[in-house]
Amino acid sequence: MTKLKSILNTRLGFFSLAVVLFWAKTYLGYTQEFSLGVTGAMQQFILLINPVATTMLFLSIALYFKKSKKAYTVLFVVYFLLSVLLFANILYYREFSDFLSVTTILGAGNVAGGLGASTTALLKARDIFYWLDFVVLLGLVLTKTVKLDQRLYKKRSAAAITILAVTLFAGNLALAESNRPQLLARTFDRNYIVKYLGLNFFTAYDGYQTAQSNQIKANADESDMDAVLSYVNEHYAAPDSEMFGIAEDRNVIYLHLESFQQFLIDYQLEDENGELHEVTPFLNSIFHDQQTQSFTNIFHQVGQGKTSDSEMLLENSLFGLPQGGAFTQVGGSNTFQSAAQILRSKKDYTSAVLHGNVGSFWNRDNTYKQLGIDYFFDADSYDMSEGNTLEYGLKDKLFLQESVQYIEQLPQPFYSKLITVSNHFPYPLDEANVEFKAAQTPDDTINNYFVTAHYLDQAIEEFFTYLKDSGLYDNSIIVLYGDHYGISNSRNKTLAPLLGEDPETWNGYDNDMLQRIPLMYHIPGTDNGKINEQFGGQVDMLPTLMHLLGVDTKDNIMMGTDLFSADHDETVAFRNGDVVTPKYTLDGADIYDTATGQLIEEPSEEVLAETEALKEAVSTQLSLSDSILHSDLLRFYTPEGLLETDPASYSYQNQLERMKAINEGLGDQATSLYDLNGKQSTVELYETNAPELQTEEDSSILNQPATDGLNETEPVEE
User: Fold this and answer.
1) Helix (H) or strand (E) holding 479
2) pLDDT, tens digit, 9 for 90 and up, residues 431-480
3) CB atoms < 10 A from the CB of 158, how many?
4) From CA 310, how far away is CA 537, in angstroms rounded?
5) Helical packing angle, 40-59 and 68-96, nearest 10°
6) Is 597 left (phi over 0), alpha (psi -120 to 50) or beta?
7) Does 307 participate in catalysis according to the annotation?
8) Burial 211-245 (b: 16+ CB within 10 A, else e)
9) Which of 105, 115, 457, 709 is the most buried (most CB within 10 A)?
10) pTM for this structure?
11) Packing angle between helix 68-96 and helix 129-142, nearest 10 degrees?
């Protein structure tokens, strides 16, 4: 013990202890928090050693300070910052199954529209172990159990430690390359970089890539569009003659179903008595309606930008970026050819987005101007009083009810998107709004997911009733879509029994299949609706919608294809490079038969050739989309007839007054619902059972036990 204490009293000895402790907790995080897909003894060994080199490298900075106080202070500062980075990634991974990129970190201010409760919900008791080491190190010094080494430290000794760290990293990289050739050149998956080279290296490498991307944009020119134009021309899928223009000149109403996965459609949750309760009865009815074109094999394709990535996909038919959110990284500066711009140019549509959260969330207030969105009604346009909001904004029933005052003033035809938020992690809902029993699993996130999904279903039903009563319904196409998963991969094994699956056999294929999201094109007055089984993704939503509206997309830059076209490409690219097709599902290095879910353990040469071609196709699609965004390539190409968009001309202040003034100026030519209704508001037609809006006279009814979706003989579970 005396010998150990004497070692710790030296600067190098204390430094070594810090390295060991940080290595230990990093490895704990790797094995307990991250699903890195480690297989085989070599990968296990690489994972074990990869925290050492970068930890030594960063902590060795402290050794370059001759004076002891500065040296120890710098050591603690660097140690603390590395600990924050590790812990932040742990929390982020628990929800997003991904690692923090530099752009996500730098853009944190743009995604801070309510993250506190989410973070709290992610905390676990074991998290104390990720800070205990720092407390121990600090305690050793503050209690003088370890004395500061007052001797001047030579820079050549510090340099030797740095050189040793670099040498260790070189060895680590060599082992990684032997196990995964071209690791840094080929992979879209951040898991690989962390698994082989460590979290600290990933962050540094990601920062380098971000800086490089900025340089790429500065160096881009018109010739860089050649590859994009070639791909788009070859990839174009001509519209189906029976579907083309079936919704021509109708209003477009996008209903954004937050965190809504396809498995919820027609799902019945079993209670403790064995009785089944339909989670989303109204959405189920729309899904099966003869006026609805529904899809069962549509996958979300978002990356770190989550909801904003889904918007990038459906507004532009472009993928989010491999690191960070495209809205926060390039949304406020890039040139786009969005749905709003195309419809304004071709069909004189007005556009609007409505969202009960702050406008700066995901940088929407700036990005929407670049997209040519005429109106953006954010939190400033709604009653955000205490009790009306949840974690990510206004409760859905209140949001949709308050939105109609703006919708009725929009000149028709209009293109609109209403973004709901109540069905968002961690799925909180106040007692007065709970009308469905939670599931009974060890994970409250999963349990409450069904409760908030049911609430969303009720809110959508109320909104549909208003559309019909107000007269908007018959002249609109209502598109309902899920933006991304609600239950992350880290929770899927807990969810599995509710889906009738065995957690012990759950695998990558099952995770991929759960990335399905609902997509419904509800077109009132039609009778050819059906459930379509084509495979596709969110990147296909824009060309599909444009063709339904009678707008050909042949001259537009879109990475997706019309879902109804006979030439539609059913290859679905995930942002990490994984692939799903009707024939194969490629999850990392694993190949599954999509129809059966069976792992193809010994693929033939033919299968390998087919799957390699799929990987190449997906890599091309993602790379070209990335080049468009990174290099702002659309500034070099304008399709004939596309009107110029000047972001500076858009203002999201005093919008209701401006719309009213515009409509007033048009006189008899005004086309808004309000004007066509004899200048009578339709707001009073909106009926909601939202308890926040009920009078005292109604409270006795509202306070009775809810029975919707429940066994009427059972009390509501608190």
Assistant:
1) strand 476-482
2) 999 999 999 999 999 999 999 999 999 999 999 999 999 999 999 999 99
3) 21
4) 10
5) 140
6) left
7) yes
8) eebeeebeebeeebbeebeebbeebbbbbbeebbe
9) 457
10) 0.79
11) 170
